[in-house]
Design a protein that fits this description.
Length: 317
């Protein structure tokens, strides 16, 4: 699943896990934690649009090299807003690197203590943006799950050393992999999803032009995936679901219900039926409570109830 989608937005841990559940069978949250902790096959870090993303460890080096350069200016601005000077930020990153070198994986709360100890502000969102700076520099990622918390680790210790990345090859791979999981699309969809300039999206598309087919609606897709796929069965999708974040427009998916699912940068969990969002949902006292946008058929309700049972089993596993 992570290979096909390439990067899954992961600032909400449960939402990222539910994105995996929706596209696989037989897994539980424990399997995801095992991939993060024991297999080291998945990591979470700031990529693409400056948001935490879940990616395969083998995709981390080139995604990090390609998508993080545009994020430094925004990170510096947020550090200043939080009262963290450039000197403070440097000392904070040094404290984080030193602590992880000497002590191994540490949670955010543990790193807060290490950063405070060197006199660097760590209140409100200050620590988050110091950690982000360390991540943008390729020093740290979120790796193992320790108890109920996601710990930070040094990239060199957790994943080993990586070779230099060829930017042109990385752009081509990003566009190809984006289309595998999100095609058909256009250059502006690619640029928005990746957080890269439009010129980079165009360069990536040009690099794989022989692999593409242009559709009558102006969108492009990979020749290898132009066959018609059946719509997925009724399914409960999580917060920050990739299908809400993969393209510039959400209208084909949500119609005029977008305000019921997206507000102030938050993306609510929702039910998908026939390729369209038909309801929001939430967990109440250990059960799934639907909030339909319109009346659902008995068969649709029954299918979503069955999926709700499977969702609860996934979360409990």
């Amino acid at each position: 699943m992570a290979e096909r989608l390439l990067a899954v937005q992961a600032q909400d841990p449960r939402g990222a896990r539910l994105a995996i559940r929706a596209r696989t069978t037989g897994l539980t949250t424990a399997d995801v934690d095992r991939a993060l902790t024991e297999n080291r096959s998945l990591v979470v870090t700031w990529l693409n649009r400056g948001t935490l993303h879940l990616v395969r460890s083998e995709d981390y080096p080139w995604l990090q090299a390609l998508t993080t350069p545009p994020l430094f200016a925004g990170n510096a601005r947020r550090l200043a807003q939080e009262g963290v000077s450039p000197d403070d930020a440097e000392r904070g990153v040094e404290a984080i690197e030193r602590a992880l070198t000497e002590e191994g994986p540490l949670t955010r709360m543990q790193l807060r203590e290490r950063v405070r100890a060197v006199g660097v502000p760590a209140e409100r969102q200050a620590l988050v943006h110091v950690l982000m700076l360390a991540s943008l520099r390729g020093l740290v990622v979120r790796g193992p799950v320790v108890g109920k918390h996601h710990a930070y680790v040094l990239v060199r210790d957790w994943l080993g050393r990586h070779r230099l990345v060829d930017r042109e090859l990385a752009l081509a791979e990003l566009v190809r992999r984006y289309l595998v999981g999100h095609g058909p699309a256009n250059e502006r969809d690619v640029a928005k999803w990746a957080g890269l300039p439009l010129r980079d999206a165009r360069a990536g598309l040009s690099a794989i032009s022989r692999q593409l087919v242009e559709r009558d609606d102006g969108l492009v897709d990979l020749r290898s995936r132009t066959q018609v796929h059946d719509l997925p069965p009724p399914r409960l999708l999580g917060q920050f679901e990739p299908v809400l974040l993969g393209w510039r427009s959400r209208e084909p998916l949500v119609g005029h219900h977008e305000s019921l699912l997206v507000s102030g940068g938050l993306f609510r969990p929702f039910a998908l039926v026939g390729g369209r969002a038909v309801a929001a949902w939430r967990l109440v006292d250990g059960r799934v409570e639907l909030e339909p946008f319109a009346k659902l058929s008995g068969a649709e309700v029954a299918a979503l109830e069955t999926d709700a049972d499977e969702l609860l089993q996934f979360l409990a596993g």
